[in-house]
Amino acid sequence: NLFKKSERKFQMYVVYCQNKPKSEYIVSEHIDTYFEEIRLKHGFKLRLTDLLIKPIQRLTKYHMLLEAILKHSQRAGLVEEAVAIEQAFHVMTVVPNQANDMMDIGRLQGFEGKIVAQGKLLLRGPLLCTDDPSSGPNYKMKEMTVFLFEQIMIFAETVGKKTQFTSPVYTYKAHIQVNKMQFEERVDGDSDNRMFKVRSTDPRGPPLTYMCQAEDQVTRNRWTGTMSKQLQTQKEFLQALQAPIAYHNKLLKEL
Questions:
Q1: pTM of the model
Q2: Helix 11-18 vs helix 20-30: crossing angle, to nearest 10
Q3: CB 68 within 8 A of CB 90
């Protein structure tokens, strides 16, 4: 399966999309001067803005093409072929979603660390948050966009709304390292089961606690489930580093 084998290579599209907000800004500043002079000089028909969108359009076309091929293969009873095509279709469903996420992350302003060093983006979305847990039970919460990576959880304010021609910008407010994070799935007084609490245990950083409220219980469970899984992964990784032989023997017993 060519698409499955090339899955890692498709990550170049994700990186391209991550840099898209930057390229859009640079091009918009010089589109009618410098870049237009180059276009006219070399006789190019398309403007640079039209060329920059091509890789993203190609990415979505892969998805649409594979979806159509899969549907007709299943109708024709081509079982073995359909299994391979379905794997390819899955790859080209995940990659565009990752690319879309990274375009969003590219609009994050004020974060001084390297986003690419924070691992895979596990979850993102709007949550009602407050960094004043003592204000309960009637917490004064405001909507924030929260990004959960393998290594870090970033809290940002959303400026602007998504329209046909514009996208929101995210202003960085705070972050908590996952390997120095403690979280509680339940919050006292939360009868709707929509809240959870995260706290930084980093002794070098400021004391930081966020109360978060999801839209519904299902969304809350998605956040807490993903965080629990990632914290367990971090714990196992630390165990493997500290006692590799004992950890290896433990894995063998579980087989």
A1: 0.70
A2: 50
A3: no
Dihedral sign of CA atoms 9, 228, 101, 169 in order: negative
**Which pLDDT score, from 0 to 100, does residue 234 have?**
82
DSSP states along 15-58 = HHHHTHHHHHHHHHHHTTTHHHHHHHHHT-SS-HHHHHTHHHHH
Residue 128: CB atoms within 10 Å: 16
Q: What are phi and psi of 107, to 5 degrees?
A: -95, 5
> Following CA atoms 22, 24, 25, 30 in sequence, which dihedral angle do they give, to the nearest 10 degrees?
130
**CA separation for the pair 157, 174 (Å, rounded):** 10
User: In terms of residues, how long is the chain?
Assistant: 255
Identify the band that residue 188 occupies on the pLDDT scale cut at 50, 70 and 90.
Answer: confident
CA distance 206 to 203: 8
Task: Using pLDDT thresholds of 50, 70 and 90, give the confidence band for residue 3.
Answer: confident
Q: Residue 208 half-sphere exposure, CB side, CA atoms within 13 Å?
A: 18
- pLDDT digits over 121-174, tens only? 888 999 999 888 776 667 788 999 999 998 999 999 988 777 655 678 899 999
The whole-angstrom separation of Cα 113 and Cα 96 is 25
Quick one: CA dihedral 16, 22, 25, 26, positive or negative?
Answer: negative
Mean pLDDT taken over the chain = 85
Under 8 Å between Cβ of 177 and 152: yes
Label residue 69 exposed, middle or buried (CB < 10 Å: 0-12, 13-18, 19+): middle
